[in-house]
Amino acid sequence: MKKHKMAVIMEAGLLAVSLLLGGCGKNDEKQPEDTKDNVSGQENSGMAADNGEEDVMEPALTDEAKKMKQFADPQAGDVCAEINIKDFGTITVKFFPEEAPRAVENFVTHAKEGYYDGVTFHRILDDFMIQGGDPTGTGSGGESIWGSDFEDEFSDELLPVRGALCMANAGSNTNGSQFFLVQADAATITEMERLLLAQYKVTLTEYFEVAYGVTMTEEQVALYETYGGTPWLFEHHTVFGQMLDGYEVLDAVAGVKADENGVPEEKVIIESVKIKEY
Q1: Are 238 and 174 in contact (CB under 8 A)?
Q2: How high is the pLDDT of residue 211?
Q3: Cα–Cα dist 60/62, whole Å
Q4: Confidence of residue 199 (pLDDT cuts 50, 70, 90)
Q5: What is the C-alpha separation between 220 and 236, in angstroms, rounded?
Q6: Is the pLDDT assigned to residue 228 strictly greater than 50?
Q7: Distance CA 146, CA 163 (A)
Q8: Residue 19's closest CA among 10, 31, 28?
Q9: Residue 29 to residues 32, 174, 234: CA-CA distances in angstroms?
Q10: What is the CA radius of gyration of the chain?
Q11: Which listed CATH number (3.40.50.10300, 3.40.50.2000, 2.40.100.10, 2.60.40.10) goes with 34-41+59-186+217-277?
């Protein structure tokens, strides 16, 4: 039975809620440090709620989910990657080259050249995400295949839901080599909704618009409620892939022991990233 921790309510977000309740509108949100290790500066608050057994099918793998572009099965010609993680197993993702051509080209080229082989997941936050792609393992290294940062690529069809492959950055248009996989599931979102309504009398849409400048439609809120994810990162981090399988591997990696900054006690190593075409 898994404990779902609220990894999304941080100091700046709570300040924004208080300003919303006071009718003040915009907030002076604390900005994350200028490092790609930040993934928008989220912290693990340690709040928890018991949400039942895990032995249910991943919502993203259902027939209903596969009617949507982000969760659809790969078609002939699609390009995918097998991320092999030492002692854990394999995560397979498909790419979205039409929506995020530079992010996909960057990742695929790095992978083919062995750039990610032996690199660690250097920042791991359970019920949030696992982040890797920095050859230095510090969270502040790595570069794109072009040797300089490249621009963000956003699409309304691609959301940072559970299993999304996203670019890590240090702010707008600062993409290099680092990436992360979203691990937060639907229980994380529903627990957040419960806390916001019970303690602050605000909805998810109100909270994220004021705290993070993210506007969500009712349809998008429903998607996060069903598939989980990190809605506060929408249009802050490029989504360029989605997991096809390996969710149990994702959860196992996210569950390793790590300090309050997400640095794992023992290294989690990417043995290889293999690119395949359907």
Answers
A1: no
A2: 84
A3: 6
A4: confident
A5: 16
A6: yes
A7: 27
A8: 28
A9: 9, 20, 17
A10: 18
A11: 2.40.100.10
Domain map (residue ranges) of the chain: 34-41+59-186+217-277
Both structure tokens of 191: 């627990």
274 phi, psi to nearest 5 deg: -105, 130
Place of tokens 């608050």: 45
Secondary structure of the chain as H, E, C letters: CCEEEECCCCHHHHHHHHHHHCCCCCCCCCCCCCCCCCHHHCCCCCEEEECCCCCCCCHHHCCCHHHCHHHCCCCCCCEEEEEEECCCEEEEEEECCCCCHHHHHHHHHHHHCCCCCCCEEEEEECCCEEEECCCCCCCCCCCCCCCCCECCCCCCCCCCCCCEEEECCCCCCCECCCEEEECCCHHHHHHHHHHHHHHHCCCHHHHHHHHHCCCCCHHHHHHHHHHCCCHHHCCCCCEEEEEEECHHHHHHHHCCCECCCCCECCCCEEEEEEEEEC
Read off the pLDDT of residues 160-191 as tens digits, 9 standing for 90 and up: 999 999 999 999 999 999 999 999 999 999 99
What's the pLDDT at 200?
A: 84
Position 212: which residue type? Answer: Y
- Burial of residue 246 (number of CB atoms within 10 Å: 0-12, 13-18, 19+): buried
Token readout for 235 is: 């249009």
CA dist., res. 242 & res. 181, Å (int) = 9
The answer on pLDDT for 22 being more than 70 is no
Site of tokens 């300090």: 259
Instruction: Decide if pLDDT at 12 tops 80.
Output: no
Locate 29 and state its tokens.
């949100």
10 Å CB burial of residue 13 (0-12, 13-18, 19+) is buried
